TrEMBL record, chain A:
Keywords, alphabetical: Cell adhesion, Cell junction, Coiled coil, Cytoplasm, Cytoskeleton
Protein name per Swiss-Prot or TrEMBL: Afadin- and alpha-actinin-binding protein isoform X1
GO cellular component, one term: centriolar satellite
GO biological process: cell adhesion; centrosome cycle; intraciliary transport involved in cilium assembly; regulation of cell motility; regulation of Rac protein signal transduction
Top-rank taxon, per record: Eukaryota
Presence of the UniProt keyword Cell membrane in the record: no
Biased amino acid composition, Polar residues: 580-599
Subcellular location, record wording: Cell junction, Adherens junction; Cytoplasm, Cytoskeleton, Microtubule organizing center, Centrosome, Centriolar satellite
InterPro entries: Adhesion_Centrosome_assoc (IPR052300), Afadin/alpha-actinin-bd (IPR021622)
Protein family per UniProt: Belongs to the ADIP family.
Recorded coiled-coil stretches: 131-218, 260-287, 376-403
Automatic annotation (TrEMBL), chain B:
InterPro entries given in the database record: Centrosome-WD_assoc, WD40/YVTN_repeat-like_dom_sf, WD40_rpt
Gene Ontology CC entries for this record: microtubule organizing center; MWP complex
Superkingdom classification of source: Eukaryota
Protein name: WD repeat-containing protein WRAP73 isoform X2
Annotated signal sequence range: none
Pfam family, one: WD40
């Protein structure tokens, strides 16, 4: 780069300004030009190039510029721009191809340079930003370092202060301890001093006492005497004994006896206690073993190695038990064995209980992981439910038992038996009641009808009355006409008998047909009356006739027909009546027949009425 | 009659019999019976000597150098042996005598600074000797004079104030100036538990009986004149009854003067019940209360609080029944079934200062300053 800068180009004067411009430019700052050419963006480069072209090459100095360019390019390694000179001619022709190639080469080179420049520029930018970033980090870290240093210093300061305080407190404590010690020493020394003083004073006091004692003893006044009425016997009744060596020895012996007896008693008590406690321990051990062996039945994944140890323990303990039964007295080794075995069992039991506890806690925390382990609440609920069920079943059984008992052991009370029987025939009873109700209804209906019929009968009676009156009038006429016909009495007898028979028949029919409706009777009676009216040969007296007419009217007014006639007695009465009437009405047979008929009707009415009185 | 130096003895069975013992110039400080009832031990003035007067032989014997302490003489329960505290040359000794012939059995030195008291255990085989209150130390000797054990709870503070043996000799209760009772067992002579006496009782399981005055319904119109004895007594002295107070209960305390000797603080009185079930104590700075402890469970059972300071209490020798007197005219009885305050029907004011049960447990004597009242207890048929 630096090479072609320094080369000064012999340029024609017309372009010398421009060239000198160029050269001056080169002279000014080769580096700046280089840098310009390198660093400047392509546009200003193009501009400067264009200016350069204008400045460099004009129409006048074409050849010079070509030769210059050729020189430059050849020095740069490009092929020559001129054609190969065929002869030694001064003017050489421009090799266009070479020129184009050179241009192409230069363009390529230029492009490469531009790329390189771009790359370098981007790299430069990157490096710049990296630098900035690093600088920021650096400053931050520096700050952090500062703050941490400050903190550390603060903490150190506090630590120092606390240590100082601690030392102070230690010192105080030491001082207090020293003081306490000192005071205790003082107390001790004072105590010894006081003791010494006390002893001194006591000695003095003793001396005084001795002196006084001497005086008192020497005085021997008679006042120190006992005035007693009589001697009191000894408490145990014996006489007093002299004091001899034997008595002393005896006293000693007695004392030792007392002591020994006390010790023996205590030892007995302690032995008893020991035996009891041993028993208790052995029992406990046995129970623990049984518990653990029953636990062994549970799924084995829970107890990995405990069954093995339990088994071994059981074996050991069995042998131990036999041993211990022999050694009931407190032998040291036996005692140790017992306690050790109990400790072992207790440890196993404890571990087992802990396992169960963890299981329970697992169940409480999570769901039912283990099907065998039921949560306590559910268990309790189940047991409560079952208990309730049991209670209910029991109650049911009891009530059933009671009922059974009642059934078997009921006494035959009439009421109860009737009740019982009643309860069996309840259905039939109800049916009967229904029928009875129906029956009553029917009765009511019949009553109604009867009333209506009675009204009809009354009406009929009234009509008959009228008819009878008519008849009576007619009879009167006939009677007046009939005074000539007396010899027809015998003919009347048959129809009478026939009539009576018919009337009897009628009665019978009346009696035999209780359910027959009353109008048929009426029709018969009307028939009878018609018969009567037909067969009238009799010539009754006028008084008898009036009597009968009165009777008829009476009867007809008072007659009330009814249905049921079952009594034979009134029939007889009726018959008798008819017989009587027949005898009475031998002359007036037709009327009597009617009367008897009506009479019989009346009689039957009586009976019927009588009947009606019955419920 | 200490001032005159005279002792007068009467017989309960033979009223004519009498006896008078005159100590003369030797003076009389204390006098007590021997357990067989045939000897009288008089302690002369300044504790110069103890004179043993025999009522059966009219003989006299002297014991020198008795110790002037709180409880220097102790007889075994069966009355065979007597222990006497002596002091010679500034050292404490204990002498054991056989009561039948007053022979000196043993004589040994005790390892105490200033022996304050001795007491036999009920089984007659162990003697407890304790030091003065300046030092907490109790020594246990067997009948033949060997030292069995010593016990000291703490140093420097005021020590033992009172002790009590349980009737079975199983326990020894030590009451000290730190308001605690410590119980030692007879097998190891080590402390098994200690009972504190706090001023506030918080545990609701403990029954606290508080004595309250009954309100007097005096109807002025109905008072008879001249006033009858009952009315007069009721006018002068108010009746009282026990009420159960619910916890927490705070008891009346007395602040002791710390600069005076023998402060009213600590457990001053202890007594076991005869069936070994209860221990009654009094804490001197809660003077109105009697604390009853259940020995089977080793905890506080009942507290009885009264209106005035408890003077003395004593268990019925036959059953677990405690009689308490406080200087008023009522005697208070407590048993596990309940407690009752009994008014003494007396003219005027009868202040009971001390009481004493009869051995059969049927009656007790109530003593005031110059009067004596015998109280008979009726027993309802108990199945």
């Amino acid at each position: 780069m630096g090479d072609w800068k320094t080369i000064t180009v012999p340029i024609p004067s017309s372009e010398s300004k421009n060239i000198s411009q160029f050269t001056s430019e080169t002279n000014m700052s080769p580096s700046s030009l280089c840098s310009q050419q390198v660093l400047c963006p392509s546009l200003p480069l193009a501009k400067s190039v264009h200016n350069f072209f204008r400045a460099f090459c004009t129409e006048e100095n074409v050849d010079q510029s070509v030769s210059y360019l050729d020189q430059e390019l050849t020095t740069l390694g490009f092929p020559s721009l001129y054609e190969e000179s065929k002869g030694k001619e001064v003017k050489r022709d421009l090799n266009i191809v070479a020129v184009l190639n050179c241009i192409q080469e230069l363009l390529v080179l230029h492009r490469k340079n531009l790329l390189a420049q771009e790359n370098v520029e981007t790299q430069n930018l990157k490096l710049g930003s990296d630098m900035d970033h690093l600088q920021n980090c650096y400053s931050k870290l520096k700050e952090q370092l500062e703050t941490s240093r400050r903190e550390m210093i603060g903490l150190q300061e506090r630590d120092r202060q606390l240590q100082g305080k601690n030392r102070n407190l230690h010192q105080l404590l030491k001082n207090e301890k020293d003081e306490v010690q000192k005071l205790q020493n003082i107390i001790a020394s004072r105590a010894t001093q006081y003791n010494h003083d006390m002893k001194r004073k006591e000695r003095e006091y003793n001396k005084l006492k001795e002196r006084l004692h001497q005086l008192v003893m020497n005085k021997k006044d008679k006042k120190t005497a006992m005035d007693i009425l009589n001697y009191v016997g000894r408490a145990d009744g014996k006489r007093g004994a002299w004091r001899t060596g034997k008595t002393e020895a005896r006293n000693e012996d007695e004392m030792y006896k007392v002591l020994l007896s006390d010790y023996e008693q205590r030892q007995k008590q302690i032995l008893l206690e020991n035996a009891e406690l041993k028993k208790v321990l052995q029992q406990m051990k046995k129970e623990m073993i049984s518990l653990l062996t029953s636990q062994k039945q549970k799924p084995k994944e829970k107890a990995e190695d405990t069954p093995g140890t339990v088994l071994s323990d059981v074996e050991e303990d069995n042998s131990e038990l036999s041993k211990e039964n022999m050694w009931e007295l407190s032998c040291e080794t036996v005692r140790e064995q017992l306690t050790n075995s109990i400790r072992k069992q207790w440890r196993i039991l404890k571990s087992h209980v802990e396992k169960l506890d963890t299981q329970v806690s697992k169940v409480h925390l999570g769901g039912f992981k283990d099907e065998e382990v039921i949560s306590r609440q559910d268990h309790e609920q189940e047991t409560e439910k079952l208990e309730l069920e049991i209670q209910q079943c029991k109650e049911m059984i009891q009530t059933q038992q009671q009922l059974l008992q009642q059934q078997f052991t009921t006494t035959c009370d009439d009421d109860t038996s009737s009740l019982l029987q009643d309860c069996y025939l309840l259905e039939e009873k109800e049916r009967l009641e229904e029928e009875w109700a129906l029956f009553k209804e029917q009765k009511k209906n019949f009553e109604k009808e009867r009333r209506s019929f009675t009204e009809a009968a009354i009406r009929l009676g009234l009509e008959r009355k009228a008819f009878e009156e008519d008849r009576a009038g007619w009879l009167k006429q006939q009677f007046l006409n009939m005074t000539s016909f007396d010899n027809k009495n015998s003919e009347n007898g048959k129809p009478q008998s026939a009539f009576s028979g018919s009337s009897d028949q009628d009665n019978l029919t009346l009696h035999s047909k209780p359910g027959q409706k009353s109008y048929s009777v009426f029709s018969e009676s009307s028939v009878r009356t018609s018969k009567l009216t037909k067969s009238l040969p009799v010539s009754p007296s006028t008084s008898e006739l009036f009597q009968t007419i009165r009777h008829i009217s009476e009867n007809s007014s008072s007659c009330v027909l009814n249905v049921a006639t079952e009594d034979t007695k009134p029939n007889q009465v009726g018959r008798e009546c008819t017989a009587q009437k027949w005898s009475v009405a031998s002359r007036s047979d037709s009327q009597e027949g009617g009367c008897s008929g009506s009479r019989s009707l009346a009689c039957t009415d009586w009976s019927i009425e009588h009947r009606d009185g019955l419920p | 009659m200490y001032k005159r130096g005279l002792v007068q003895v009467w017989s309960l069975e033979q009223p004519e019999w009498h006896c008078k013992i005159d100590e003369g110039s030797a003076g009389l400080v204390a006098s007590c019976w021997s357990p067989d009832g045939r000897h009288i031990l008089n302690t002369t003035e300044f504790h110069l000597r103890i004179t043993v007067w025999s009522l059966c032989t009219k003989s006299v014997s002297y014991i020198k150098y008795p110790k002037a302490c709180q409880q220097g003489i102790s007889f075994t329960k069966d009355g065979r042996y007597m222990a006497l505290a002596e002091r010679r040359d500034c050292k404490d000794y204990i002498s054991l005598f056989v009561c039948s012939d007053w022979q000196l059995l043993r004589h040994f030195e005790t390892d105490t600074q200033d022996l304050a008291g001795i007491e036999w255990g009920p089984n007659g085989c162990v003697l407890a000797a304790w030091d003065s209150c300046l030092e907490y130390k109790i020594l246990l000797y067997s009948l033949d004079g060997r030292l069995l054990s010593t016990y000291s709870a703490y140093e420097w503070s005021l020590g033992i104030k009172a002790i009590a043996w349980s009737p079975s000799s199983q326990f020894l209760a030590i009451g000290s100036y730190d308001e605690k009772v410590r119980i030692l067992n007879h097998v190891t002579w080590k402390m098994i538990t200690e009972f504190g006496h706090p001023t506030t009782i918080n545990n609701p399981k403990i029954v606290v009986y508080k004595e309250t005055e009954k309100s007097q319904n005096l109807e002025m119109e109905n008072l008879p004149f001249p006033p009858t004895r009952a009315a007069a007594s009721s006018l002068f002295s108010t009746e009282s009854k026990y009420e159960v107070v619910s916890s927490p209960v705070s008891l009346q305390t007395l602040k002791p003067l710390t600069d005076r000797p023998n402060p009213k603080i600590g457990i001053g009185v202890l007594a076991f019940s005869p069936d070994n079930c209860f221990l009654a104590t009094r804490n001197d700075n809660i003077p109105n209360a009697v604390w009853i402890w259940d020995i089977q469970k080793l905890k506080l059972f009942v507290v009885l609080e009264h209106l005035s300071a408890v003077r003395s209490f004593q268990w019925d020798p036959q059953q677990a029944r405690l009689a308490v007197c406080t200087g008023r005219s009522q005697v208070y009885l407590w048993s596990p079934a309940g407690c009752v305050s009994v008014q003494v029907p007396a003219e005027g004011d009868f202040q009971i200062l001390s009481l004493c049960w009869h051995r059969s447990g049927d009656s007790m004597a109530l003593l005031s300053k110059d009067q004596l009242c015998l109280c008979y207890l009726e027993n309802e048929g108990v199945k």
